[in-house]
Sequence to fold (284 residues):
Amino acid sequence: MKLRRDMFLCMMLFYGTLWGMDGEKQTDISKSPKNMENDYGALRRPDTLSLGHIQDVWTTAPPCAGIYKIDYQKDHVIRLKTRPFMTTTIVLPEWEEISDIFLGDDHLFIVEKKNAYMVCVLAKEEGCDTSLTLIGKSGNIYPFYVRSEGIHSSQVPDIVVYVEKKGMRERILEEVSGRKEEADYLQTVPFSIENLTFLFEMFQKDFASQEIAPVRVYSDGIWTWLDYGNTWDKKPFPAVYQRIDGVDTPVNTRVEGSKIIVHGLPPLTLKSGQKVICIEKMEL
Fold:
């Protein structure tokens, strides 16, 4: 009898609890006065900790720190300082075009070509080194020794490296500036060094067309020089046309040594038999 009574009391308590829960008024948190006013209160969380990867040497470094200018010499290796989480941008002469890149260690370093004459180098780790070689279409080979230092290094890493090649640009400027005055009105226009550019690219019809391609192309904004370098006596000089509204139109030219001087600007088309080369301004 006592056992039945205890079971009855337990059942009454259980159903009483369910009845109370079913009758309890539910609160809609989304309709809280503070929530309605977009006041959600402060979010408690631990303080943000510094990663400890700031290089202190930058605090007192001069504004020109990290900018490195070096003259190209074919028998010298250019030495660079890098560090993780910072890129080093190598800028070759603007008339140069990088045709190939050789990186010694592609596991700890990344090299990415940005345009015809510019690459970026990024070290993944500190305390490592490698070699980097850039091959230019001009025939120049640019060798680099790249070392990655850490945040505790007393040396500022190289952020931008300008590789300058003295001689070629100065020689071209001298040749262009010293040209003889002639009756043609184009030759009476004052020459401006600031307008000299090497930013042109060439497209060939086929592999055989390489035979008529110049070594380099540059312009002062009025004339265009097609420089055949040391190969001028081994290559046939092509006929030159200026492309106007998509039509190849004859243009005045003259030959000086290893160069064809065009009295006009690209786009140009060079033709010799079935060989064709197109020259256009480079899009940056």
